Amino acid sequence: MYRYDAFDQGFVAERASQFRDQVSRRLAGDLTEEQFKPLRLQNGLYLQLHAYMLRVAVPYGVLSGGQLRRLAVIARRWDRGLGHFTTRQNIQFNWIKLEDTPDIIDALAEVGMHAIQTSGNCIRNVTADPDAGVAVDEIEDPRVWAEAMRQWSTIHPEFTFMPRKFKIAISGALEDRAAVLFHDVGLRIVKGKGGATGFRVYVGGGQGRTPYVAQEIAAFVPRDEILSYLEAIMRVYNMHGRRDNIYKARIKILVNALGIDEFRRQVEAEWATLDKAAINLPAAELARIAEHFAAKPLVKHPAKAPKVEARRKSDAAFARWMRLNVLPHRVPGYAIVNISLKEPGMIPGDISADQMETVAELAERFGGDELRVTYQQNLVLPTVAVGDLDTVYDALIEAALATANTELITDIIACPGLDYCNLANARSIGIAQDIAKRFADPEKAEAIGPLRLNISGCINACGHHHAGNIGILGVDKKGTEHYQITLGGSPKDDAEVGDIVGPSFTAEALPGAVETVVATYLERRLTQSETFLTAYRRLGKLPFREALYGPEKPRRAAASELEIANV
Amino acid sequence: MPSIVTANDLRSGAVVYLTGAGGWVCDLPHATVVDGADALKGLEALALASVERNEVTAVYAFDVRLVEGLPEPVSVRERIRAAHAPTV
Q: What's the domain range around B20?
């Protein structure tokens, strides 16, 4: 993974010292809240319901064991012993005191971490495939480019005060595991003519109150030119993105107002004017960054370990964990291990300081001292020798981290909701817990098969409800929390925004409604391998709607149309 | 409807409620409940003075109803804040 050089370290230390000064001036009364707020937000510090919340950047979701240990120290010393992983592969601490933040930022800087650009109208943490560098279907490692973009975008003077925040995701594999099509800019590494790699570029995707799937703006941008191409996109957005209305300020609104063809024309015209050589990543710099991500030589192992195979036969829970949470690695004899932070009944994405230390130790002992955060709020040990899988599993059981539910209905994405968030209209965590408990039987959840269930506590959609196969949106209905169900969303290559199925439910009624949706799918699926999403696309909304609300009544409008026809 | 003025403590971020003496308390039942625009204005003036002394931030008033003489927030949001803890 990338290790800070003297420049990076100096920059982060300088920012930490600036922030210490800003906090002390605020506490002394030399800065008003109005003056201080943009400064604290540029350092990831929000004011939430109960306390300040610090959002720490985890660039493209990559952490070392030592960094996770430091996060555990922060959780224990300055929070209530917990951290919460987010859908931008970052981590949040929910119980922070303003007067402690300079010390926390220093503690982060010591291990090459910070909270810069985790808020504000800038380029946010670039996210990437959590299986980068180890996936069997990878074309090229996206971390190299995510790191280049981190460096390019960090306090970039032109992109610090944009119309609104800006999110980029990169996938370097055949399968999209980074929800690329729901980003302001989504990048897919592809092979061009002659085998050279480049980027297929998508623009204008996003969730929130106006959800859009991104559209292709360029089929192939040579990789050496991607930074100047991105800069052209940013410039067109910065110039023409709306600043008069926060709800219409994201690039998706501009792209859809202009149309993708006109937006592309403007980007290409802008690109033609740029001094590309001054912006693009020099080959030597690319090589320097790439070296940090070069695959470590791995000791060869047989593809299967006899003791692990024996355990698989004798221990059904271990076999399930192997089936659901362990993925093939590009090197035979190794595996990718998904660590679920979704034990039914627990808070999705939450991790205790003790659990962080267990995972850090596993990464150090068995995982090449590296781990990943996924946007589904789980962790990944990217490189574990197959012969160590049973030992890792036992350690995870001890830490209550061995839930086998990757991509199942209990692997719920949920935002913090009204339990913590200042923007929320309704609670999400309790709803996630109630639903997960209904499907807590692992056999039942596995029999249902892959099913993404995502919950947001408000229309800002931090819980990705639009992209859930089943999406749940919390709304405030005359002072009472209600929940709207959407069906058929997908964050993957077949990305789609879910359809609202009908009127909302109370918190008490919602878990039962989700059970009805799932039962309708199970009754109607053609085979066990027809997933929820495939079945929904075949069946449409109607059978689910009828199961939830009763048979459709003839619409009055239809009757009046009939009368007109008779006339 | 009766109301209470709330804020977050500047240093800690903790939820606090205003008293008629101009101080801040953590427990909702110890807050001063006012009814009517003029009484609320008086309370808000005390709160703004406190903001200027850099004691609190994010000041606003919210509605409560009195249950057996004790204030109970009308909104779920304020009930969660008053508990100083998530509901999960």
A: 3-82
